[in-house]
């Protein structure tokens, strides 16, 4: 991986219920959080953010007398109990301004990437900066980042990452059929075909996920930012 200058990437993470996207993000936080360097590999700086978390803040503020914000973030069963209510409120929010959360996250990413180190030769300088946007559910979210980065001519790599899992494995994780499975929040990316990376979550534990993040994701970003052979 040739990363003589820092590589900046926004990683859009998507997946259906019980696909394992939250597990992948958790492993990524452990792997990349606080600066990651393995052997002679690159040092990685990472930030994790979510349109869903921003929405949940608004949701719990709106229904403060009915919803426990902490449980909504940490308790899967509690979240599932209120999913239809959240979906109805999201439909209301989306009708007003569907990109409100995407724009806030893009600004956060740009602030991260614009930070410059006082000493570029320092060992503390990250060679890869990753801004993870988790919980992506719609093609227009992806298109917002694509178009915004293109218009600004930002030197930022966009990685479209899909997490999927076989049905039988999802059942092992606690999935059961629900009316929400046919809602746009679950089906909005069914026909999207421009994934840069697809991770199939079909094994328990962290090793499978760790190998994917370390070997596939970092390699993809490195190859995308390396000079072309014979280039100047």
From TrEMBL:
<keyword id="KW-0963">Cytoplasm</keyword>
<keyword id="KW-0443">Lipid metabolism</keyword>
<keyword id="KW-0067">ATP-binding</keyword>
<dbReference type="GO" id="GO:0005829">
    <property type="term" value="C:cytosol"/>
</dbReference>
<dbReference type="InterPro" id="IPR005919">
    <property type="entry name" value="Pmev_kin_anim"/>
</dbReference>
<dbReference type="GO" id="GO:0005524">
    <property type="term" value="F:ATP binding"/>
</dbReference>
<dbReference type="GO" id="GO:0006695">
    <property type="term" value="P:cholesterol biosynthetic process"/>
</dbReference>
<keyword id="KW-0444">Lipid biosynthesis</keyword>
<comment type="pathway">
    <text>Isoprenoid biosynthesis; isopentenyl diphosphate biosynthesis via mevalonate pathway; isopentenyl diphosphate from (R)-mevalonate: step 2/3.</text>
</comment>
<keyword id="KW-1207">Sterol metabolism</keyword>
<keyword id="KW-0547">Nucleotide-binding</keyword>
<dbReference type="GO" id="GO:0004631">
    <property type="term" value="F:phosphomevalonate kinase activity"/>
</dbReference>
<keyword id="KW-0418">Kinase</keyword>
<keyword id="KW-0153">Cholesterol metabolism</keyword>
<protein>
    <recommendedName>
        <fullName>Phosphomevalonate kinase</fullName>
        <ecNumber>2.7.4.2</ecNumber>
    </recommendedName>
</protein>
<dbReference type="InterPro" id="IPR027417">
    <property type="entry name" value="P-loop_NTPase"/>
</dbReference>
<keyword id="KW-0152">Cholesterol biosynthesis</keyword>
<keyword id="KW-0753">Steroid metabolism</keyword>
<dbReference type="GO" id="GO:0019287">
    <property type="term" value="P:isopentenyl diphosphate biosynthetic process, mevalonate pathway"/>
</dbReference>
<dbReference type="Pfam" id="PF04275">
    <property type="entry name" value="P-mevalo_kinase"/>
</dbReference>
<keyword id="KW-0752">Steroid biosynthesis</keyword>
<keyword id="KW-0808">Transferase</keyword>
<keyword id="KW-0756">Sterol biosynthesis</keyword>
